[in-house]
Amino acid sequence: MAVQFKMVPKQNNLVSPPQIKYYPCAVSKGEEDLDSLAKIIASRSTMSRADCYGVIVALSEVIGEALTDGKIVKIGNLGSFQLTLSGTAADSQEPIGKANIKEAKIKFRPSKELKTKTNTINYKRIR
Q1: pLDDT tens digit string along 98-113?
Q2: In whole angstroms, what is the distance from residue 60 CA to residue 93 CA?
Q3: Got the DSSP string for 25-79?
Q4: How many CB atoms lie within 10 A of CB 127?
Q5: What is the mean pLDDT of the chain?
Q6: How far apart are CA 59 and CA 65, in angstroms?
Q7: Model's pTM, two decimal places?
């Protein structure tokens, strides 16, 4: 099965005169939710759909707990999750505190095995 894409125009205002260039953009074919993932995993294993559902829910909770403890979560052939912070700058280290932190984000880095799967993707242009 091929990943569908379309060409999307984007304007570059940093050059004079502004230029429009076209870039490929993946087109989504829908979503897989927790229930459908549990069904797929159950069909490929000896576990029931309910067992798979429970494991996925528990895994997401444990990942969240580990991240809030300041840990990096590495999951074998999937990849790793890490917390990153964004905030405001200060002139020196002294006044920096909680007030300088705007938000926390979760960064995901895919494993080498997962990245390799993207090397075999077939592409199909639409429109």
Answers
A1: 888 899 999 999 999 9
A2: 35
A3: EE-------HHHHHHHHHHTSSS-HHHHHHHHHHHHHHHHHHHHTT--EEETTTE
A4: 7
A5: 92
A6: 10
A7: 0.75
